[in-house]
């Protein structure tokens, strides 16, 4: 931690800050210029609240030089984390595509969607059985019946399952049906859920909160990892800004920032990130170009009649177009996007 004293801070103020730092257990290195004094506080205290020092008289500013998270940090683990999900690696050379509707609505919808996305190179089937809706009057999901439908469709087409868990009480129910637990944006700081999911052995897909900083997001990953589960996949899904032409603002700069700060894989969700169907393909292209390890996209056989998020769901032919385009971008970066299945005639 670096403490910068105000220009003209008195010797008494400087001594008082040094005493406080010592009392909190830091060793202090003082360097005094003609006008200003800077104090270097040495000591590993990830949970130290820098405001204890910021509020002292004569202090101009305080900077952290170590991150408050450990297991999630690049400093702790230099090489990229690769997460194997039944033969598909997230965080390796392949850009993994997770596709499917916002909500599981029925057998037919999931069967045709799974067949289509698998044929064009997706390796995960998404779909919510428990939905965090902005309105309590909106469709809340099919619950366990939805999980059964999702698992069945995924298995028939060689796909892995990713679905959202909204509360700790659902973990046991969802566990046998899913390959990856999704924690939704609204639950990113549900610390009891993060801790419980951290005690399981399945990968966790942690969406960024609507107004979360990257540091807060990584602290949430830390919650999961601190309980023993190292398999965390981060997902940038757009944050709330003053812009109104899109549902959220997709923060693609989070991709290189996360890559520098953390070893965890990062997936981008341009569907929730923009909220508008015709913005999804361009932002999917940009996400791959920025270095994302995967994409999560909403695809529906009949978007105008979807029970949730229809306006941001791709039509089937748009999904094909997306896959063709991101495949070319991945190749330019020496990465891959799975090839479509050969259709036998
Ligand atoms: C979803 O993936 O359907 C979803 C609800 O996402 P988010 O938590 O990012 O809003
Ligand atoms: Mn959705």
Summarize the SSE layout with pairings:
Elements: E1 2-5, H1 11-23, E2 27-32, E3 37-42, H2 51-54, E4 59-63, E5 83-85, E6 88-90, E7 96-100, H3 107-119, E8 124-126, H4 144-156, E9 160-164, H5 171-174, E10 180-183, H6 191-197, E11 204-207, H7 214-226, E12 232-236, H8 254-261, E13 266-268, H9 270-274, H10 277-290, E14 294-298, H11 316-332
Parallel strand pairs: 7-8, 7-14, 8-9, 9-10, 10-11, 11-12, 12-13, 13-14
Antiparallel strand pairs: 1-3, 1-4, 2-3, 5-6
Helix pairs in contact: 3-4, 6-7, 10-11
Bound molecules: phosphoenolpyruvate and manganese (II) ion (MN).
Pick out its properties.
345 residues; alpha/beta; Alpha-Beta Plaits; TIM Barrel; four-stranded antiparallel beta sheet; elongated; binds phosphoenolpyruvate; binds manganese (II) ion
Summarize the model shown:
The chain has helices spanning 11-23, 51-54, 107-119, 144-156, 171-174, 191-197, 214-226, 254-261, 270-274, 277-290, 316-332, and strands at 2-5, 27-32, 37-42, 59-63, 83-85, 88-90, 96-100, 124-126, 160-164, 180-183, 204-207, 232-236, 266-268, 294-298. The chain is of the alpha/beta class and 345 residues long.
């Amino acid at each position: 931690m670096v403490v910068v004293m105000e220009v003209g801070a008195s010797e008494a103020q400087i001594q008082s800050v040094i005493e406080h730092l010592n009392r909190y257990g830091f060793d202090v290195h003082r360097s005094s210029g003609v006008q200003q004094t800077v104090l270097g506080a040495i000591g590993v205290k990830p949970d130290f609240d820098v405001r204890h020092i910021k509020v002292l008289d004569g202090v101009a500013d305080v900077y952290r030089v170590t991150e408050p998270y450990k297991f999630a940090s690049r400093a702790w683990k230099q090489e990229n984390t690769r997460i194997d999900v039944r033969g598909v690696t997230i965080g390796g050379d392949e850009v993994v595509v997770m596709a499917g509707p916002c909500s599981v609505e029925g057998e037919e919808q999931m069967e045709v969607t799974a067949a289509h996305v698998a044929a064009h190179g997706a390796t995960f089937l998404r779909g919510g059985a428990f939905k965090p809706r902005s309105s309590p009057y909106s469709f809340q999901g099919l619950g366990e019946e939805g999980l059964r439908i999702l698992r069945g469709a995924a298995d028939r087409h060689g796909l892995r399952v990713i679905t959202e868990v909204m509360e700790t009480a659902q973990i046991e129910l969802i566990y046998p049906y899913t390959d990856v637990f999704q924690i939704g944006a609204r639950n990113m700081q549900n610390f009891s859920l993060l801790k419980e999911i951290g005690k399981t052995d399945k990968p966790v897909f942690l969406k960024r909160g609507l107004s979360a900083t990257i540091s807060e997001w990584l602290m949430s990953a830390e919650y999961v990892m601190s309980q023993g589960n190292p398999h965390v996949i981060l997902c940038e899904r757009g944050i709330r800004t003053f812009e109104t032409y899109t549902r959220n603002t997709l923060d693609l700069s989070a991709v290189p920032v996360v890559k520098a700060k953390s070893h965890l894989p990062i997936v981008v969700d341009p569907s929730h990130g923009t909220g508008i169907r015709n913005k999804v393909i361009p932002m999917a292209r940009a996400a791959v170009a920025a270095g994302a390890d995967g994409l999560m996209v909403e695809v529906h056989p009949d978007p105008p009649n979807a029970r949730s998020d229809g306006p941001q769901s791709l039509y089937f032919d748009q999904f094909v177009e997306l896959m063709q385009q991101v495949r070319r971008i991945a190749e330019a970066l020496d990465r891959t996007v799975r090839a479509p299945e050969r259709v036998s005639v």
